[in-house]
Design a protein that fits this description.
There is one protein chain. By secondary structure, this protein is of the alpha/beta class. It contains 17 helices and 13 strands. It has helices spanning about 15-30, 50-60, 75-95, 105-120, 135-140, 150-165, 175-180, 185, 215-225, 245-255, 275-280, 295-300, 325-330, 345-350, 360-375, 380-390, 390-410, and strands at about 5-10, 35-40, 65-70, 100-105, 125-130, 170, 195-200, 230-235, 260-265, 285-290, 305-310, 335-340, 355. Strands 3-2-1-4-5-6-7 form a seven-stranded parallel beta sheet, sandwiched between helices. The longest helix has 22 residues, at about 75-95.
């Protein structure tokens, strides 16, 4: 089996790394692959040497060797450039020292480190470009970079080089595959014979196994929801996450179902959404806005009746696989979502697990609410769809193991 270095330009304690990266790596370890993880740690989160040793020991018990470099933030562009070249130098030394077979880059920055390291190394391990989204377009769509500015153009040139030099690719959605590797849909390989896998953001369904009627009743009693129709939202606000539209939706829910309750689980500041809910008729007893650790999200969602997921419909989001949708379905919740985001149209329409809206209007909101309320008793169906489409082991794990096998066999 292969020996792989997984390069991640995030800190090991980031929720994304804990819920998306490490679980996937455990699945690769189960397949017999030797895994080394490289992360970039903000100085404020590195913790004591004791905490770092504990993290290293914990990962080692899971079969993962962990190394870290310092993440630099000040003077953003220069800091990232410094981290890239420092990371590339570190990886180059590891290629020989660890006898690596695969360099697995999570997104553009990490893959660039691997590509540069390999360019200056005698040994040439396979390079896997794990495309977590259309990175340059995400930054322009979110208003962070100006359209066609120098940062965008430079990043696109880097992306073009990575698409030429990598030996295999992972994308999150079928729509992204159609845009980048149309010919791979039937064969699983691009026109140059490089393996392609579509691996959506999966979830560890064992985290949601405790959600049942008893835990639902406990949560609803704890929150004072009782028999109120409860709509949940999980995630951040701002950027391409549509705050005003989500608030408008909750406002229409309140008008349509007077005793409705809004459950908002967000890492964003409460003041981003609370005044908007109050302006739309919500009183103190009508909503909950809180930050919840990942481990507690299943319990809270288990107390809801439906969930909402509104994301800016733009070019970059065709490559997006919102983890929240997998979590909603794992808790048995039908989803109200806007169309055009990744594979959400086929997910909802083909599986009948919610309602899609084509426009952000009161009429569309009301129709979607009524449609979802008619889907009573589909909790087990939602969970089955989540298992079929987003199970960490049988979907994510199997597909990562498959592309590792194909890269190792080349």
């Amino acid at each position: 089996m292969s020996k792989s270095l997984y390069i991640c330009y995030f800190g090991v304690r980031e929720p994304l790394v804990q819920t998306q990266v490490i679980p996937y790596l455990r699945e690769l370890v189960k397949g017999g692959h030797e895994i080394i993880l490289l992360t970039f740690e903000p100085s404020s989160r590195t913790g004591t040497h004791g905490a770092q040793d504990e993290t290293k020991a914990n990962l080692s018990e899971q079969g993962i060797q962990w190394y870290s470099l310092k993440y630099h933030k000040r003077f953003s562009v220069l800091a990232t450039a410094y981290d890239i070249f420092r990371g590339a130098a570190f990886i180059r030394s590891m290629i020989g020292d660890k006898d690596l077979n695969i360099l697995h880059g999570r997104s553009h920055v990490s893959t660039l480190m691997g590509a540069l390291a390999r360019s200056f190394s005698r040994r040439k391990p396979k390079l896997l470009f794990d495309i977590r989204g259309f990175f340059p377009e995400e930054y322009t769509d979110a208003g962070i970079w100006p359209e066609n500015g120098w940062l965008y153009r430079a990043t696109k040139r880097v992306e073009e080089w990575l698409l030429k030099t990598a030996d295999g690719f992972v994308v999150l959605t079928e729509r992204a595959r159609e845009i980048l590797f149309t010919e791979s849909k039937e064969t699983g390989y691009d026109r140059l014979g490089r393996p392609i896998e579509v691996i959506p953001c999966c979830v560890d369904l064992s985290r949601f196994s405790s959600v049942n009627t008893e835990t639902r009743a406990t949560v609803r009693e704890l929150l004072g929801i009782n028999d109120r129709y409860t709509v949940a939202y999980v995630g951040a606000f701002g950027g391409w996450y549509l705050t005003e539209e989500t608030a408008d939706f909750f406002g229409t829910v309140k008008k349509t179902i007077p005793n409705a309750f809004a459950m908002v689980l967000t890492q964003s500041k409460p003041e981003m959404i609370e005044p908007l809910l109050r302006a739309r008729g919500y009183e103190n007893e009508d909503f909950l806005i809180t930050r919840v650790p990942p481990a507690e999200i299943p319990a809270y969602l288990g107390g809801a009746d439906a969930a909402v997921s509104f994301i800016k419909n733009c070019y970059s989001k065709q490559a997006s696989s919102p983890t929240k949708n997998a979590e909603y379905l794992a808790c048995g919740l039908p989803i109200v979502a806007n169309s055009g985001i990744g594979d959400v149209n086929s997910l909802i329409d083909e599986n009948k697990v919610g309602a899609l809206i084509e426009s952000f209007t009161p009429e569309a909101y009301r129709n979607s609410i009524l449609a979802v309320r008619e889907l009573n008793g589909i909790g087990s169906h939602c969970r089955e769809v989540s298992r079929r489409e987003f199970d960490l082991a049988s979907v994510g794990g199997d597909r990562y193991r498959r592309i590792y096998h194909r890269l190792s066999a080349k």
